[in-house]
Amino acid sequence: MLTEIKGLHHVTSMAGDANDNNDFFTGTLGLRRVKKTVNFDAPDVYHLYYGDEVGTPGSVMTTFPYGRMPRGSRGVGEVGVTEFAVPEGSLPFWADRLAAQGVTGLEHTTLFGETRLVFDGPDGDGFALVEAAPQGRSTWTGGGISDDHGIFGFHGARMRLRETAATDELLSFMGYQKIDSADGVTRYGIEGGNAASTLDVEQVPDGAAATEGAGSVHHIAFAVEDRAAQLKVRAALMDTGYQVTPVIDRDYFWAIYFRTPGGVLFEIATNEPGFDRDEDTAHLGEALKLPTRYEPHRAKIESLLPDIAA
């Protein structure tokens, strides 16, 4: 069993309009945009990062807004719900706020004794706010939402799969322990890591396969402290039979990727070097930052990207 994985690092989704995306995460949810850069494989597409004040691992939602990309359809073989943690007693505030801003899919639910508010993102993405203890985290209040209501970061995420046995085995190997099961959902948690420590697996035996598009989670990333820990995880996964990419420099973390038995793309990302490597904390997410290889083409890239409001 691995001991290097410390919970979630980030979740990355595909999206439609860049300004709608930015407005939703910074305006509606009150997160901070901590980085404005581009997709490494498609530099005419933004890669936007939203999180707490400094983009702490376990707080960061990232998106690829492709513009007029068709929406995906929800189903099995994907991360179907991304969950944010909010202060206890804050869900009435959020229900009123989201309803007033026209957010769809609002529904109050409980799972594993937790009070939750489920809702749709701007591209039909599946989200939930879960009342939880802060666990040492603070909220970003720069988005105009008070400390009593603001988002701490991730609570966890839920994968929907037809068959779960192989994924259960993988999560156990990654250091996750089974906590509970209810209503076809099994909860896993990891000890000794960050506060984004839960992962739910929902079995939907007869579910239709998800189709990828705007609103689909592209991958879910798990945190390790540094590159040495990442290399240990990579070697162990490969020894177990997984096909794992080489280490890729993503400027703000190093990443490796592999496809899980249920079809979900997993990433293992380092906590280093962080989002302040090329911007000071006071100005995170303001300027367009480009990977080094694209810097000579800045003028062309900027001409292709839509303007995004601050």
Automatic annotation (TrEMBL):
Any Pfam family the entry gives: Glyoxalase
Gene3D superfamilies, per database record: 2,3-Dihydroxybiphenyl 1,2-Dioxygenase, domain 1
Superkingdom of the organism of origin: Bacteria
VOC domain: residues covered: 7-132, 153-271
InterPro entries cross-referenced by the UniProt entry: Extradiol_RC_dioxygenase, Glyas_Bleomycin-R_OHBP_Dase, Glyas_Fos-R_dOase_dom, VOC_core
PROSITE patterns, per the entry: VOC
Protein name, UniProt field: VOC family protein
Organism: Roseobacter sinensis
